[in-house]
Q: What sequence folds into this?
């Protein structure tokens, strides 16, 4: 029912990509998702090249299945990571925060599939022209950096606008969400928030508990005034951010408040002054499971959901 030639060609059983969450998506999570039949992703973010090399090699010891690397193109380390994935034989790269065009020939020469994250039809078309193999159409329900369009509005327009496979992201946390976006014409899904509470996810337990106890209205978008909006769960940090924005604080003041807040939440477990990036789907996530249990449950539920209407 969810057979995808694109994912089959990648050697992946289930058409699901684990989100490239900065400070979260490490070798432990990526290898567990890949072992469970999905496509695990190691997030490079702003990490040093040597650190990502170590994470890639750890993942290779933990799984013999395909996994990828997410590259944040605005990072000062993007150039080094772009070459590293070639050296390490990575077969899939997802990208965000920039145009991967300058690396496309390099990656293609090494047989790498390139899948940029996009938030508009125009950007999806630009990525297709640049040589992308697929795009991830990410709605604003997602955690972390977001665009303006919802998944339900964005995905079908991107599907109609390009001739390459489209993968849906944003607000997908169970089988019903999987079933819904497949009806919109996608080849697969990308999931982030649900994997935050996976047994193999190494984030602090305080962060996990914040997801598990979240309600439907517990996320908020901050930093709109900077041009780089971010969805997080509400806490003291988000309230201070909103207060500064209402006061028309300078960009420097906002950047100072946000500096280092993501690792503060992920590694230190500071759920008041840390940045708890999570999607609106957090209110649906109520239990810790293995990556295998998460993936199998989502796709079994998706099949059951669709079968009800056949």
A:
């Amino acid at each position: 029912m969810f057979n995808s030639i694109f994912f089959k060609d990648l050697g992946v059983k289930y058409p699901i990509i684990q989100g490239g969450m900065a400070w979260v998506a490490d070798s432990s999570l990526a290898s567990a998702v890949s072992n469970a039949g999905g496509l695990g992703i190691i997030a490079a973010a702003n990490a040093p090249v040597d650190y990502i090399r170590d994470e890639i090699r750890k993942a290779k010891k933990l799984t013999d299945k395909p996994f990828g690397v997410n590259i944040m193109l605005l990072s000062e380390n993007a150039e080094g990571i772009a070459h590293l994935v070639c050296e390490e034989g990575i077969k899939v790269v997802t990208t965000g925060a920039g145009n991967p065009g300058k690396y496309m020939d390099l990656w293609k020469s090494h047989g790498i599939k390139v899948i940029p994250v996009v938030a508009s039809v125009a950007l999806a078309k630009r990525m297709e022209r640049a040589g992308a193999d697929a795009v991830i159409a990410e709605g604003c329900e997602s955690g972390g950096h977001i665009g303006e369009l919802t998944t339900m509005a964005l995905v079908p327009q991107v599907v109609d606008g390009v001739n390459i496979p489209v993968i849906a992201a944003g607000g997908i946390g169970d089988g019903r969400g999987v079933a819904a976006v497949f009806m919109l014409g996608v080849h697969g899904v990308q999931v982030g928030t649900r994997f935050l509470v996976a047994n193999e996810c190494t984030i602090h337990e305080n962060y996990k508990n914040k997801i598990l106890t979240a309600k439907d209205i517990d996320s908020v978008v901050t930093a709109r005034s900077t041009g780089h909006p971010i969805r997080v769960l509400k806490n003291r940090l988000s309230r201070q951010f909103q207060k500064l924005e209402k006061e028309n604080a300078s960009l420097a003041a906002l950047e100072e408040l946000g500096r280092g807040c993501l690792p503060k939440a992920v590694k230190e477990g500071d759920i008041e002054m840390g940045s708890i990036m999570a999607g609106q789907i957090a209110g649906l996530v109520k239990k810790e499971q293995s990556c295998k249990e998460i993936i199998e449950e989502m796709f079994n539920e998706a099949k059951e959901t669709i079968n009800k209407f056949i």
